[in-house]
Known about the structure:
The structure is a single chain. 67% of the residues lie in helices and 7% in strands. The radius of gyration is 21 Å and the shape is globular. By secondary structure, it is an alpha+beta fold. The longest helix has 35 residues, at 119-153.
Amino acid sequence: MKKFWKGLKDWFTGDWFRQCPSVGGQAVMEGVMMQGKKCIAISVRKKDGEIVTRKKPIKRISEKHRWLGYPLIRGVVNFVVMLYTGVGIISESAEMLGEETEEPSKFEKKLAEWLHMKPDDVMMIMAVVLAVVLAVVLFFMVPIALESLIKMVLPENELLINFVGGLIRIGMFLLYIVSVSRLKEIKRVFQYHGAEHKAVFCNESGLPLTVENAQKFSTLHPRCGTSFLVIIFVLSIIIFTLLGTDSSNVFMRLGSRLALLPLVAGISYDILQVLARMPRNWLVKALMWPGLMMQKLTTAEPDDSMVEVAIRSLKVAQGIEDVETDD
């Protein structure tokens, strides 16, 4: 019984997740970012074939404020941090490749001066805000508007309306992924995404981190952010039905859904983390299957040179290899 209560306490405080060593990452422009326990590493391959790597220390706010690592809260914090840092890392990878980065606008410079911030930081925040607004329009406003139209025809069937709204969200996400995957640059990002997963799998298996070993593994990983989004889409149907307003007013429904989104994200994060660390019985495999299938759209088979970049990033993030730290 003591073991049960200790396990429950470790889950509540987030210590259980921290005790399970794991490496996560993200595909970037012509490269991969990997996050270890103490630092993140960004590796990209330049046009001349050289692999360039940067290392940055991790500053986890949940270590300074323990309550940010509690259930529900940690999922929201992780989602916000992932969104903010993800934009910055992609921008940094472009800079590492030697590509010209966009200069802050006059408005962003003025705003930075007023807020006592760096113009580049303000530009990044503006990019995140724009991404959030686009996501709200695509995955909330459009589905909710269609839900309201359906409600006029079927006013008493809220479960069906929310189910259809959930399907529309998933459909919009699929349409978005399929559309951007036609771009040559995005295809290569998806290949690096696959390389990241293969390198992580190889590391978790205990095999030596070589290109040959990593290429044996799948491009589909259970802790992938794509699976996280799928859980959010599915769980939102249930939570919006149980707790959301049944009003036919578009703005009432939108406000209700946005207010419940942190709850959905918080629960989804814990579900993903728990499933990824559970024994692979038939039930766990069945629950993970939709997310893994969605990854078939966001990952692609990488070539050996891409896997080499992913391994380089992982080794630096794990402290196996070293480069000068970028503070």
